[in-house]
Amino acid sequence: MEIRYPAVLEPEEGGGFFVRFLDVEGAMTDGETLDEALFNASEALSGILGWMLEENQPLPTPSPAEEGLYLIAPDARTQAALLIRQARGDRSLAELARALETSWPSAQRLENPRHSPTLHQLERAAAALGKRLVLALE
User: Fold this and answer.
1) CB contact at 8 A, 107 and 124
2) What does the pLDDT average to over 19-36?
3) DSSP 8-state symbol, 101
4) Is 73 exposed, middle or buried (0-12, 13-18, 19+ CB in 10 A)?
5) Where in this chain does the record put each HicB-like antitoxin of toxin-antitoxin system domain (predicted)?
6) Could you identify which of 9, 12, 25, 45 might form a hypothetical disulfide with 16, taking C-beta atoms 3.0 to 4.6 angstroms apart as the criterion?
């Protein structure tokens, strides 16, 4: 499952770009160049999605890609936390901890975007949730 949110980049008067996300209220940024705007967009998206995860807020589902929109991915730690949260579904963290034969705090850290789980931890969690870990580079 890929996590990418569509964003609109609008040229600003005097140069640069304003970035706003269609599905993530409050996530917006800008940049002097296209590259800077895209980098800042990923940072802004990571920050707000990370906050939503930490506050146990409902997570927005990304809209399908449309022509003229940019698809922005959050940073790897935020993506990992989102993927575990989504894969867990209605199961409790306690159930995940039992399946992983670990403590509840250890299972909770898998959904913490400030924590950097190892590939081994992610593989074990994916298997416990009936999934398979797949990596990609861009």
Assistant:
1) no
2) 95
3) T
4) middle
5) 5-67
6) 12
